[in-house]
Structures are given as C-alpha cells and as structure tokens.
Amino acid sequence: MARLSLSAPLDVRLLDKGLSVGEALAAFNAAHGEAGGIVSFLGKVRPDGDVKALELSHYEKLTLAGMKDLAQAAYDRFNLVGALAWHRIGMMRPGEPIVLVATAARHRRNAFEAADYLMDHLKSAAWFWKRERRSDGWHWIEPRDRDRIDLERWK
Amino acid sequence: MARLSLSAPLDVRLLDKGLSVGEALAAFNAAHGEAGGIVSFLGKVRPDGDVKALELSHYEKLTLAGMKDLAQAAYDRFNLVGALAWHRIGMMRPGEPIVLVATAARHRRNAFEAADYLMDHLKSAAWFWKRERRSDGWHWIEPRDRDRIDLERWK
Amino acid sequence: MGVRILFLGPLRDLAGEQEREVPGPLDWAGLLEAVGPAIAEQLNEERVNVACDGKVMADKTVLAARDGDEVALLPPVSGG
Amino acid sequence: MGVRILFLGPLRDLAGEQEREVPGPLDWAGLLEAVGPAIAEQLNEERVNVACDGKVMADKTVLAARDGDEVALLPPVSGG
Predict the structure, then answer these.
(1) Which is nearest to A111 in space by CA: A37, A46, A13?
(2) Parent domain of D9
(3) What pTM, to 2 d.p., does this model score?
(4) I want to staple D54 with a disulfide (CB 3.0 to 4.6 A). Which of A82, B61, C33, D71 is the partner?
(5) What is the Cβ-side half-sphere exposure of residue D59, based on CA atoms within 13 angstroms?
(6) Ordered domains of chain A (ranges, CATH)
(7) Which residues of A touch C51 (CB under 8 A)?
(8) What tens digit of pLDDT does each residue of A14-34 get?
C-alpha cells in the first residue's frame, strides 16, 4: 500500500473525514524503527442502542494548537521518541473512528502511560464538543465525572 | 489489501517469521466494530549499541497453550470484546517486531489495562527464553527486577 | 467591523446562532448584556471559558475586546 | 523408549545438548543424577521449573516420569 508520510517526531491532525487506522499505524511504526515499544489507542463511535450519529465540533483558533501542545507535553514528560494524535471533527456514524493516538518510546511503560495521558486529555481537556443524534433528536454530551477523575491522575 | 482473517474473540499465535503490524491491526479493528476502544502494543528489537540479533526459543508443549490461557484471563478480567496476542519465535534483527498485542473493550480504561496486563505477563510469565548476539557472542537475557515488579501489580 | 462573539458547542443552541457581531470595545459587563440572560448565566459559571483573539483568558472578567477581535465562549468540553 | 529430558533456554548451553534420553522410570533423585552437578544445582533453585508430560509441576521433587514421558527443565523466562 502507498506509504503515508508522517511528520516526526510529532504528527498531530484534525481530520474532517475517515481515517485508515492500519495505514497510519504501519507508517508510525516505520517512522520509529528505533523505538522498543509502540502503543496505540483507537476510539470509535460505540453502537449504543439508540445512537444514530455523532457530531464533533471544535474551535479553529484553539483546537489544533492545543493538541500540538498536548503532544509536546507527552513527548517531554514520557521521554518519547514519537507521538501521533489524530482527532476527527464533523459527523460520524457508529463504528467509525473518532480518535487515534500512538506513542513510541524506548521502554513499554512510558509508551503505555503516554497514550493513556494523551487520551485522558483529549477526552476532557481539549477543545471539542460532542453531540449525539438519537431517535428523539440531538443531545450534547457533558463530560463525565469519571473523565475528570482520570485527568486528575496526571496532576 | 487482502484482509487477514482473525479468530474471534481471541486470536493467539506463535509466529516463526515477520508479522505485518498494520494489516493485523486493521483486521482486529474490523473484527471488533462494536468496541469503543482498541489498544495495541508492538514490541520491537531495540537497536541498542552492540546487539546484532535476538533469538527467542519456546517450549512447544507449553508456550502457545499458556498464551491462550493468558488471553482468556485478560478477556475475563477486563471484560474485553476481543484480544490478539502474537509472539515471534526464532531469530530477529534490530527493528523487527517481537510481540504484538491488541485489546478491544467498550471502555478505554479496560482496553489499556488489559494490554498492559498481557505485556507484563508475556514478558515474565510466558514460556520464552531470549538471547542476544553481541560482538562477543551470544548472551542469555535474564528477567529484570523491574519486570517482576510490573507483574506483581496484577496479583 | 465590530467584535465577533462565537458560541461554541451547546451555547450555540442556547444562543440560537453561531455568532453575533457587536460594536467594540467590549468588556465583561458589555458581553453579559450583549448575549442575553440565558447565556450570561452560563458565562458566570466557572467551567465556562472565554477566549479573546485566540487566547483563553485566565480571568475572563477582565475582557477588553476591540473592534476586529473574536470573542469565543467555550462551554465544558467532551472529546474523544 | 526411555524418558526424554529437554534442556530449555540457558540450560541448553549448560548441558551442551538440547535433550537427552535416559531409561525410565525417573524420579527427582534420578533426574539430579542424570543431568550432572551443574544442572542439578540449577534445578535445586526455586525459580527453575520442571514440566512432566506437558504439565508444569507444582512440586518438582515428586517427579515420577515413566518411559515415553518428556521431562522439560525450565529456567526463568524472558519474553516480549
């Protein structure tokens, strides 16, 4: 398959359409040959009962810049050799990817913690707003208490 | 690309040659459309100074069966919808994959913990023996204290 | 060219519009008045942030937007 | 057809061979004698396991292998 070109060490993107997970991870893996461990997380729209669609909106002037700062913070804190953080915006259907992060480090513990850290922050400290369409219309999704607790772990 | 066929919910393999990470993860992702979160870990031979090659040996009668039990234990303990655990045996060069695990769950915390759990056990509680060839010959790798500490976390 | 007020996420539904232009300069009191009581109530909550000219304000009550600035009203986020 | 003793990982180097066949039956004392002093010393360490017929023994000292059995000597592992 055609090899995707990633920017190294940090590749951060806002995507307005689908993403090819296998291709992205193959490219990330190839870009970080020197890493002993690579962790990835893929978040998808859960086909929960009644959910027909999900929409993610963002704020042009803050969202991508904030994601870049976040990736840099993870890079520094966990001694990474590389990180990828891609986030969808716009309309998605159940089963579609919303977010993909990948982290590369010499040792696996750092790669695991960095991916966890990135996800906790993308969930509840990045400039995204999410709403779901159910049979009775659109509903905005409030951050859950659990998400705030997860975030506290890194403070 | 041709789609790899995985067994669900658990796909456990011993591989005597290279593995295509992107293809495996694309197939795992496709096999678990209902999962909200998918975590993967890829471990590679680190190109550390003097290491020319790495050899992993196993014991036919125990290794694969033990990996299957481990995947089942992770599946039950973390409420997974699927897991993949592939481990190389034989001779590898720096940069080559040694191990790939992937976990799919409704919630991301479970997927993260299950991947971490699988790796800690594959590192120091599965029937593999590892040796490295350096310029002065072959050296067997002893488990590190850190690996034992990691394993204790799950007890 | 005045001050553009942007309503993000659920505030967009509450405002019934995505953005509104008001004459500058605009301070905190002026903002609360310009957006109406429902949004003003939200703005008074700590968890709602305000960005002026692409920067999130540490203290939103010292807002001092001038003509040409963009003031974004940022409710609690939910990503990933 | 006797009892096959398999040397795994670093024990293979210590034994200078991958496997050896000895006449059955084979108990713990017989095993220690069959493998020689260097390997016997390793076997006496708690972290070295023994599998008989594909099953890891909870107490290796009760070994009772018969002709046709495979006895595997398993030093500490290091995977991934």
Answers:
(1) A37
(2) 3-74
(3) 0.94
(4) B61
(5) 3
(6) 10-152 (3.90.1170.40)
(7) 59, 61-62
(8) 999 988 899 999 999 999 988
